[in-house]
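Dock NAP; give full complex structure.
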Amino acid sequence: MSSLATFDAFAVGKAIHDESNFQWCVTRQPAGELSPDDFEWRERPIPEPGPGEVLLKTHYLGLAPVMRMYMQGTGAAGEAVLRPGDVIHGRGVAQIIRSRHPDWREGEMVQGQIGWQTYKVSAMTAAEKMFRVPKQGLPALYACKTLGMTGLSAHAGLFACGEPRRGDKFVLSGAAGGVGSIVSQLAANVAGCEVIGIAGGAEKCSIILEQGCSAAIDYKSDVLAQRLAELCPQGIDCYFDNVGGQTLSTVLENLALRARIVLCGSISEYTLEQPFALSNYTRLRNKDARMQGFFVYNHIARWESVMDELASWILEGKLIPKNDVTRGFERMPKALARMYAGLNRGAAICDVRGEPESWS
Ligand SMILES: NC(=O)c1ccc[n+]([C@@H]2O[C@H](COP(=O)([O-])OP(=O)(O)OC[C@H]3O[C@@H](n4cnc5c(N)ncnc54)[C@H](OP(=O)(O)O)[C@@H]3O)[C@@H](O)[C@H]2O)c1
């Protein structure tokens, strides 16, 4: 049985209902490919909110590569380190169904750190980074990713770090994914760059040509160095890196003067025991180039202005949210494994209960 098929078998017989809180917990540190044995399904009573707390009912949960690192107990990325038995961290969209908190009302939709569970009692602490989902005529689903941390990551990496200029040769890896599908559209439709996307496989390469990219490179079958030299004969002005490793190293060999490299993620290294040893970073020197990392939580102060801007671009048609939706909370582990298998097209989301009937 393929490893993803084992997740299908694992989901059989598991289903949520509204009389209990269902949770996914980590059982051990994953090694190599994710396996069902890394996850435990739990049913618990729905918790009661105390004074100053609210009860949240989960509608959508986002999936992110960093969740495997949470499970490993390494790279907690701003969240508490997980131990076996803990509910896995994850941001999502939920409705407040009871409130004993003076600042939050029943019926409001919020997005924030909910964890892999179908209900949560929350004191709405700063650490949970909870935000109201405004009613803008857009589905609550969008708040899970495009109008959430994924959108903020794309925006911060692109504009605050990449400083794109009209006509730039702009290359990005992970172009068909959650962050990538936003960055490619904004780089092309807002910043006016010529966008070259790198993705795995012919199907993804044809998808990215419809979301901002004017050329696509299939890193699984093309010779990356050769294609970059053909497409960027004067060098790359801006590179948005989602994968790290050999792809980053190859890009460093073809930079234009004053090139900017944005270090967003390095998924090709997340399952390695030792990180990739980048040895050619000195290529930055003779091109007056720079390489800059960013962490999305360091950009939270700009949340409202960035969300307003992203929403306006959606309404103007410059940004079309691309979501890869897995239906059913019982399929969360598989949805995470699919990301590492490169199967998600767009932002990976688990639809736990769909859209709310109404929200205030
Ligand atoms: N800096 C920050 O604050 C921040 C915030 C959010 C996300 N991130 C990072 O941004 C990146 C994208 O995140 P996302 O949530 O949008 O994920 P995503 O791109 O939607 O999904 C992950 C994708 O990575 C690719 N991939 C998987 N294994 C790979 C490998 N060994 N080599 C190359 N590519 C591989 C797959 O696409 P292919 O089929 O094309 O290989 C897969 O679909 C991740 O590295 C993530 O950690 C950083």
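Observed: The chain has a mean pLDDT of 96.
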